[in-house]
Write a structure and sequence with these properties.
By secondary structure, the chain is α/β, with parallel strands linked by helices. It has two domains: 365 residues, Alkaline Phosphatase, subunit A; 68 residues, Arylsulfatase, C-terminal domain (2-Layer Sandwich), CATH 3.30.1120. The radius of gyration is 21 Å and the shape is globular. The N and C termini lie far apart (52 Å).
Length: 452
């Protein structure tokens, strides 16, 4: 029997798909992620599914860990049902539990933003465990692993080491001390580059805000009410947006990314020193993207590409080097792809599709279309070229606008020119509306009637 590869699954918080040097950003310094992309494959058009809560990170993590769309991944996706929207559906095979059931030692470090029952079903061990959404990076409330699945508040401790360094040191310790014969599955979840964006020096001073070039999609304010302009994320800067303030946000965002990139390099150095590098699959992704000034927005509660597209870098045995793939894929395709590469069949009842054949040039395309959602106010569908976003006024909140956007992504990648009112593009709108209808019916979108 062939030796199965180890897996290191790294997931960041708020890292936009193109805020990586290898993805085309000429300002941000990410030499470690750039080298990972060069030594492996970059899935350049990876999308999240969205969710019905402002904390989009919660459903995104449930989706990637269950390999399926959000309405199958969690107990509930009803707006306001905060007690259950973070709970992974009982009986669902999660990525760590699936690898654990196939002989892997599964170990968790960092952020798990879903329920503790699914966590303990998945992991054999762990340390520096963070079950919250966000914290000060030098005041991180963490738990030690408890095999009984009990994490009462009194067992929590506050770590003052910067979160990225804390989680990195824990990962290095695991790699250096691991001596079992079973392959390992290391789940390393950073809270960077999520705000507060307070990278330590010298990274805090790495980017001069005055030298930051604003993206083409920078706007002083969003052109209409998208239904979520008053959420916490959007209040991190004044309205209307000011260029100097947005430049500072971008500089701080890049500083967090470069700091994290450096520490990911330390993890990979420890892996090399352990002698396990050649037999380890490494995945890097994030729970969602972030606007940081694009379209007059700061957060991720929107359907523009800067928020719904995430990195997916993969390297290891069986993965070609230097591949850049532009096919449409979902982030929840990672689970079955890793199963395929590890030689363990994926669960039968998941939405995710293995992209192993695409990575190895044995098929030409990924998905024909992808769809994303946000609450009862935004729905998105796209094919390889065309993208439509539908907005609705919410009867529940009284916010939002009945509006349609159509973008030609081939000629307008920054999503600046809305073509929806031009009759020339009516065929594209009709086709995309049918695609959206098909997706909402297939996924069981409880708010589909509002968009049909």
């Amino acid at each position: 029997m062939a030796v199965r590869p180890n897996v290191i699954f790294i997931i960041a918080d708020d890292h936009r798909y193109n805020a990586i040097g290898a993805a085309g950003d000429r300002t941000v310094q990410t030499p470690v992620l750039d080298a990972l992309a060069q030594a492996g494959t970059m899935m350049a058009r990876t999308h999240i599914n969205g969710g019905v809560d402002g904390a989009v990170c919660v459903p995104s993590r449930a989706c990637v860990n269950t390999g399926t769309h959000i309405f199958q991944a969690t107990e509930s996706q009803q707006i306001g049902d905060h007690a259950r929207t973070n709970v992974i559906r009982p009986g669902a095979a999660t990525m760590p539990s699936w690898f654990r059931s196939h002989g892997y030692h599964t170990h968790a470090i960092g952020k798990w933003h879903n329920d503790t029952a699914s966590f303990n079903a998945g992991f054999c061990s762990g340390n520096s465990l963070f079950f919250g959404g966000m914290s000060e990076h030098c005041q991180v409330p963490v738990f030690d692993y408890n095999a009984d699945g009990l994490y009462p508040p009194e067992s929590r401790r506050i770590e003052t080491k910067f979160s990225t360094e804390l989680f990195t040191d824990s990962a290095i310790e695991f790699i250096e001390q691991y001596a079992n014969e079973d392959p390992f599955f290391l789940y390393l979840a950073y809270t960077s580059p999520h705000d507060p964006r307070t990278a330590p020096e010298p990274y805090a001073s790495m980017y001069d805000p005055e030298q930051i070039q604003l993206p083409p999609s920078y706007m002083d304010e969003h052109p209409f009410d998208n239904g979520e302009l008053d959420i916490r994320d959007e209040k991190l800067a004044a309205y209307p947006r000011k260029q100097e303030e947005v430049r500072r946000h971008i500089a701080d965002y890049y500083a967090m990314i470069s700091h994290m990139d450096h520490h990911i390099g330390s993890v990979l150095q420890a892996l090399n020193a352990s002698g396990q590098a050649d037999n380890t699959l490494i995945v890097y992704t994030a729970d969602h993207g972030l606007a940081v000034g694009q379209h007059g927005l700061l957060g991720k509660q929107n359907m523009y590409d800067h928020s719904i597209r995430v990195p997916w870098l993969i390297k290891g045995p069986g993965v070609p080097a230097g591949r850049h793939i532009d096919a449409l894929v979902y982030q929840f395709d990672i689970f079955p792809t890793l199963c395929d590469l590890a030689g363990i069949g994926a669960p039968d009842d998941i939405e995710g599709k293995s992209m192993n054949a695409l990575i190895k040039r044995k098929m030409d395309s990924g998905r024909e279309t992808v769809y994303s959602l946000y609450k009862d106010i935004q729905r998105m569908v796209k094919n390889g070229r065309w993208k439509m976003i539908l907005y609705r006024h919410s009867a529940e909140t009284g916010k939002g606008t009945d509006f349609v956007q159509l973008f030609d992504l081939m000629n307008d990648p920054w999503e600046l020119h809305n073509l929806a009112s031009d009759p020339i593009y009516r065929p594209q709108l009709i086709g995309l509306k049918q695609d959206l209808t098909d997706w909402m019916e297939h996924a069981g979108d409880p708010y589909a009637d509002l968009f049909l």
